[in-house]
Write a structure and sequence with these properties.
alpha+beta; 6-stranded mixed beta sheet; 5 helices; 22% helix
């Protein structure tokens, strides 16, 4: 019998086509990150007027970890969840999309997990083998029950070097909370003229996951759009994701 709260399914996981893998890292950043003079055209902090308004500030809501390894995994792989660093990110979606960043293609398998707070059995687990580095997305399957407004859920990404010794995993975890869409916000979104406008509305409403999803989708389909690019970089900066933003600026300097 299949437990209705646990679904193992094939999910298309894609790395953004506009990201570039890096190969040598020191303290979370590549040693050549700011060596290119062309980076002068991309300031370290975005000057975009894109404004993310968090629902509140609090204790850090993302964690990183690594076990004591007997079987050494891929060296130098940096794993970062694309979430705010000091509060729970919110979403309006019942089936949100989750994003994380890996600096290199890990040799080990990757496990994504989504768990309701206070419930031991995961809602969803997916095992995958990454084929590209950069920003990775995971869409919550539509055939699962929607996230419940007002509830918090924990999601995590683990690099599984030894399935028999999961204490050795490198992992990162954070939380997501679904909130209800107000009539006023629904009207604003209906009147939005562009993807950037929609993302801005989400960001000002504190809907982190929705703003990020719109910007990344728009960036992947139109990577030369400067307005989308600057809004994306600004969103990363405002959430404290400066290392990922630095890598994006380095990549953009090549174009």
């Amino acid at each position: 019998m299949v437990n209705s709260r646990l679904l193992m399914s094939v999910v298309t996981v894609t790395a953004s086509l506009f990201l570039m893998p890096v190969t040598r890292w020191v303290d979370g950043l590549p040693i050549h990150a700011f060596a290119n003079p062309a980076l002068a055209s991309f300031p370290e902090q975005s000057q975009s007027n894109f404004n993310y308004v968090p629902p509140y500030r609090g204790i850090p809501r993302r964690t990183q970890g690594a076990g004591t390894r007997g079987d050494e995994p891929s060296e130098g792989v940096t794993l970062k969840l694309l979430v705010p660093n000091d509060h729970t990110g919110q979403t309006l979606s019942g089936h949100p999309t989750f994003f994380w960043y890996v600096s290199e293609i890990p040799e080990e398998s990757v496990e994504f997990s989504l768990v309701e707070s206070g419930v031991a059995q995961p809602i969803f687990i997916e095992q995958l083998q990454l084929e590209k580095a950069g920003i990775i997305r995971m869409e919550m399957p539509k055939n699962l029950p929607e996230l419940v407004p007002g509830k918090e859920y924990r999601w995590s990404v683990s690099l599984v070097s030894n399935a028999a010794r999961r204490s050795n995993d490198t992992f990162a975890q954070s939380w997501i909370k679904r909130v209800a869409e107000t009539p006023a916000l629904k009207q604003q979104l209906a009147e939005a003229k562009s993807d950037r406008d929609r993302a801005s509305i989400y960001a000002e409403a504190g809907a982190w996951y929705d703003a990020l999803n719109v910007l990344l989708n728009a960036q992947s389909t139109n990577p030369t759009n400067g307005s989308i690019r600057e809004a994306f970089l600004s969103l990363l900066d405002q959430a404290g994701l400066t290392e990922v933003a630095a890598q994006e600026r380095q990549r953009l300097a090549r174009y």
